[in-house]
Amino acid sequence: MTASGTPGPVVVVTGASRGLGAGLAEALAGSGMRLGLLARNEPPVPTGAEDRCVPMAGDVTDPGVLDRLVTGVVGTFGRIDWWVNNAGLLEPVGPLADADPEAVSRLVAVNVTGVLLGSRAFARHVRDRPGAGVVVNISSGAATTPYEGWAPYCASKAAVDQATEVLALEGARFGLRAHTLSPGVVDTAMQALIRDQPAERFPAVDRFIDLRARGAFNSPAWVGAYLIELCEGRTDPGRVHHRVPDEPRR
By C-alpha distance, which of 1, 9, 7 is closest to 229? Predict the structure, then answer.
């Protein structure tokens, strides 16, 4: 329940077992949202949200998994209001000439195809029920800033940005808002992996090491608060692309 005592919106979050996805689930649960959570391994249920959560294990690249997720969440809560495509991969990191082709294909499958299929599943749900909906695709500054050693990741996030632009045009006909959200730098296992890269494979590594030294991160709670404002239409809902502002240093 929200502070007013009414049931909160129903929100699906993919990639919800760890990192930013798990942090977003905690933030949303703390604000009274009802949740559908998806990850490769069944994601943990946020404390206190046991009766407001449908967790599910599955691969975002499998349309059948996403259809079952929609069916399960709608069967429990009656509808889905917001959908957050957060699942994503970072590797392979390093020069594209040296990249493992299978790793490249897997990254594109999760980061691009998974977002497209998740957006598809939610768009069909919103189109077929009364009322509006909001899809938020987690993007990155890497969508517009090239980094040596990050060709697959940068390309995947640029693809997500453009796909979301198209979805925003298509969804306007039936009440679906579509946004990308760049969360800023959040100190997750993905960030630890970045900091562990040798400079010859990822020349920008010192920037991320410095961010760690200064503690200049956005917390998942801070990102979650911005996400809620965006979905509720309190933060420039007419704009497709959003970046979470830097969290004030504590």
Answer: 9
Q: Rounded CA gap, 138 and 85, in Å?
A: 6
pLDDT in tens, 57-113: 999 999 999 999 999 999 999 999 999 999 999 999 999 999 999 999 999 999 999
Nearest to 140 by CA among 92, 79, 88: 88
- Token representation of residue 183: 């969360």
CA 190 remoteness from chain centre: 14
The HSE-up count of residue 91 (CA atoms within 13 Å, CB side) is 11
Q: Rounded distance, CA 113 to CA 105, Å?
A: 10
Catalytic hit among 83, 147, 153, 217: 153
Question: Which structural domains are found in the chain, ordered by start?
Answer: 10-186+219-243 (3.40.50.720)
DSSP-H helix ranges across the chain: 19-30, 63-77, 101-108, 114-127, 151-171, 189-195, 205-214, 220-231
Rounded CA separation 131/38 (Å): 24
Q: What is the pLDDT of residues 126-148, one digit of tens each?
A: 999 999 999 999 999 999 999 99
pLDDT value at 1 more than 60: no
Distance CA 194, CA 196 (A): 5
- The C-alpha atoms of residue 219 and residue 210 are separated, in whole angstroms, by 17
State which amino acid sits at residue 7. P
Residue-wise pLDDT tens digits, 184-201: 988 777 777 888 888 888
Half-sphere exposure of 208 (CA within 13 A, CB side): 21
Active site (annotated) includes residue 226: no
The pair of three-digit structure tokens given for residue 237, joined into one six-digit string:
């809902």
